[in-house]
Design goal:
alpha/beta; about 40% helix; about 15% strand; 2 domains; OB fold (Dihydrolipoamide Acetyltransferase, E2P); 6 strands; elongated
Length: about 260
Amino acid sequence: MHKTAELAEEAESAVEAAAVTRGPVFRERLGVWMFLLCVAMALLNVTLFIRGGWLDAPAVQAWRTVCLAVTVQALPFLLLGTALSGPLTLSFPSGCSAGCCPLLFLPALSLLVYAPPALGAYTASREPAKAVTQQQRFDALTAASPLPMTLTQFTRRVQQDRTQAIKGRTVQMSGLVTPDKGRDGWYLTRIIISCCAADAQSVKVRIHGAPSLPADTWVSVTGTVHPGGTLGTKSAPAELDARTVTKIDRPVNGYTDDLPLVPSR
């Protein structure tokens, strides 16, 4: 009987020792896997940033954005979980340390319920407008009236087209409202995202002759070039005398400076 009791005590001791050993080993392996995951995601993002060609296709760009967003947003939570592993180990008995490890991922679950605010007028009002690239040749404008144009196309026509083909033409552009407090007029704005929110840039055209709507309101504006400087040179400002301003739904391609695509119903 005494021998049996001793064997039982030894077995219990062995089980307790194994539980104590498994806890640190599990946490160590978890930390290694988390580190390797972060490194892999970082390398993937670097590769996507450097490579061009087919990676610039719209569908691939969407996945690039998702991948980078996950890395940027999830990495701090993963590091926080690793930092909390020490206090959690001290707070719970050694036998349940391995079972408590899933608690380290609770901060990351906040990504499921938290969405960062959309980029809009607040961002555009605090950064200079994107520099419009030089265009050497301009095709003849169509006879459509109003003439649909992007903000970039309008800016190029006003500041680079020596033929002044846009003079007197009624154009139509769309974007979100960016108020300009203390000055006449407001800005029609498009936010452009190539990869992620970190590289967001804005294109802006000042609107005259129409009251400003609330910030971030999507509108379609028709009008003619506002006089100033010499049309076809950089002295001419990218400004429009508005004739009509109409509220519209945010287009599905809202983070580009393309003609708007109507949201699907």
